[in-house]
Amino acid sequence: MEEQSVKSQQHYRIRVQNCVLTIMDVQKTLCERYGSRDFVSGFDKLEAEVARLDMTRVSEGDILLVEQATNALLAEFRKVFEAGKLGPVYKIVKN
User: How many beta carbons lie within 10 A of that of residue 39, not counting itself?
Assistant: First the structure.
């Protein structure tokens, strides 16, 4: 049973890290275009904070909230990226 719990915790961490890394990739593209990091400076600490999370206290619902928040943030930037003003976030398709 404990092995399953460890696997779940690892899976949760990967899911949160994927969200954070996606946000950081978008941040990088925005910073390259606009040169200012002021409006996205809070994202710089996300990766370190995720590494420190105690995944034993995290539930599936918590992870879903992070994923939903990430999707909502990306939706906010969708029009800018679709208009072609920023170019692609990734040079090649990753998945």
Answer: 11
